[in-house]
Q: What sequence folds into this?
């Protein structure tokens, strides 16, 4: 079950942990470089989420935690996805496929 509050949807802690575990061996689907968040980056992430539901995004040129956190939340908002976690320089994003027949991940 996913919690909702004022049109904002939150994953439960156990669901975020489950998703991070699934994505552990994934390769990053996109890299955030010195240009930051661009339209092409958002399109790339949207395409990857459409194909896989769960992806990793690596922050290459950003080392400060606060900046990475703000950028990770911004990406989640722009892609209408859930930020499942931010560990080191890697963020995990989840967006359930709209077509129920194409869903690959079942949340606990």
A:
């Amino acid at each position: 079950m996913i919690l909702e509050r004022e049109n904002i949807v939150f994953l439960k802690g156990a669901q975020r942990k489950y998703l991070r575990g699934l994505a552990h061996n994934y390769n990053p689907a996109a890299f955030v470089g010195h240009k930051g968040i661009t339209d092409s980056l958002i399109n790339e992430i949207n395409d990857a989420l459409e194909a896989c539901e769960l992806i990793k995004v690596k922050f290459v040129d950003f080392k400060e935690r606060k900046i990475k956190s703000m950028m990770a939340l911004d990406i989640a908002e722009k892609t209408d996805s859930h930020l499942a976690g931010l560990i080191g320089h890697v963020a995990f994003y989840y967006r359930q496929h709209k077509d129920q027949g194409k869903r690959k991940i079942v949340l606990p």
Notes: The radius of gyration is 13 Å. Confidence is low (pLDDT under 50) at residues 1-8. The chain has one domain: 12-96. Strands lie at 3-5, 8-10, 30-32, 54-59, 82-87, 90-94.
